[in-house]
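Sorry to interrupt, but I need a hand with the structure work. Please put the record directly below this note.
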Amino acid sequence: MLKKGILIVTSMFCIITILLIGKNINLIRNKTQRDKEVLGYSEYIEYIAWESKMITENPEYENLKILIDISEKRLYLVNGNETIKIYPIASGKLNTPTPIGTWKIINKAKWGGGFGTRWMGLNVPWGTYGIHGTDKPNSIGSNASAGCVRMNNKDVEDLYKYVKHETPVAIINGMFGPFGYGLRTISPGDIGADVMEVQARLRAYGYYDVDYLDGKYGPHMEQALYDFQKNHDLPKDPHISYETYKKLGIIIMD
């Protein structure tokens, strides 16, 4: 995959070079001669080397996405259908999981301390989550964070160069989408992608009248659940378990 990435970068560099040359190669030759005269030959050679390095290391990818696989502890930087980079990560602990779902980068910063050297925030509605560096490199490859995605500082600095605001980020874990590896019993106060999916089902059935799903099990959602249970011959229960999932049309097949 890295070889493919190198080929992509090389191809893009060639395309950029051709476009720059265009139809008027004589003008470029004249400019090159003037640059040599102004800078001096040695300085000119150094500049060309620097420019080539910048183009090669920081290409403008048009269809950049991030895929994070929690089970693999890997972050994939993807352009179209090609994997550009693969980085090892640390994810959230079992009681503070990394949010599954499709998000986007909403802010970037150069932080420090426990957040390492770079921060890229995600638009997760139920909390503050992001991709960042770490001062605990030995945690990479494990479930160690409060929900954020940790990276080695050198890796997060590299990723930071490519990522822009609005870059899509997909986080997966297990085979059941927002439910990861299976259905848990959801209780008042819980947060997460599975809570947001239940909210979406309640809204689709006309019980949860909100414009914005936040993935937080609060009083409004609890009342919507009671109304749903009442109209579907279910006992009143604030805990969402198998029977309620089934009535909501959420069934997981192995």
